[in-house]
Amino acid sequence: MSSQPRLIAAGYAALLALLVLLLLGSTAWLGDSPTRMQFAARLLPPSPEHWLGTDALGREVWARTLAGLALSFQVGLSAALLGTLVALSLASLAMLSPLLDALVSLLIDTLLSVPHLLLLLLIAFALGGGTEAVIIAVALTHWPSLARVLRAELRHVHHAPYVAISRGLGKGQGFIISRHLLPHVLPHCLVGALLLFPHAILHEAALTFLGVGLDPTQPAIGVLLADAMRYLTGGYWWLGVFPGLGLLLMVLAIGRFASMLREVLAR
């Protein structure tokens, strides 16, 4: 019984690894397919010649979807890792003194009270848009919930007997944090980053869809969905369905793996 969740998590890990290899390797074997225009093949439906159809400039939807998913994966991964680093840093900072703990707690509560999408838009717009702006905006708006969990976990471990013994032996707060507290919360950071990952991908696509995200010339999923809105009423359904479906499947796969990993680590 106890090995079954581990086997399922291992299966999800293998599928996720395959997905990562496919996405990261797509830039090598796709070549110029995502941007190659074929004006004689504009807005064609899915067929054996054009697997997922073509867009208004004759570009292959399957190639642009794969390129967009790879780009979303890279941006989402960067934002999730940066957000996790911010959460861990502030949760660790809160352990140094009661005053810093109160300030970090106030900052967490303040950011959690602001509407999420509004804060994303303000930060991305203030930074001028683009890939770096999206990564920073997503990271700065996704750390508070994880920081709250890490802070609570650190406070719990901070009162453990072995920490009290270390403190009694004259070890400083920095030593206790680096040698006792941080190793304990690293698995939580891993799961937290994986749980932040799909949210980061979705919000990156949302920002790009609204026009304050990635460059419109890039084959990002948000760009594909925004372009598809102009043609859906004309019956060109494949322009929006396949990029949206690819984004949904990638987010569900990552989210499901994160949930399984959390269950395994909790045992």
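That was protein one. Protein two is written in the same sequence-then-structure order:
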Amino acid sequence: MRLFLALWPDDAVRRQLVSAQRAWLWPARTAPVPADRLHLTLHFLGEVAEDGARELASSLPPCKAPFTLRLDRAALWPQGIAVLEPSDAPAGLATLHADLAALLRAQGLRVEARAFRPHVTLARHAQGAMPPAELPAIEWAVRGYALVRSRAGASAGYEPIARA
């Protein structure tokens, strides 16, 4: 199973993310992320055996200290990746990311070596896109996270398989 851990938005936050996505001016070749796939990745795990996925799902710790994530900056990253990101990531997010990294290591799962750069990807292939001049900040009250399965092929999409 191809898995990742993510902040999974509720319906209200998802609507705000879609609204922010629609505020951009997109070139024709842009591939916007479908609304039901918008999320903030905490850790990408890649392929995990079903028994490893079950073990991870059953051992997810709760979010120790709920926090508010303020997505207040629209950015166009290299390779045409359009994102929303916080200008200042809350300490609770860093703590959650670190706690989950420790859990993954303890279970023998891979943890990316590169620095965590929290963001929600809005679109790919967006070279030349124009972000909105003003963007209302999205205040995301984070109370938990999800273990998400990424499906390819005819049933492509993301499916939360466990929540904490």
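The first strand starts at residue 2 and ends at 7. Keep this in mind for the problem set.
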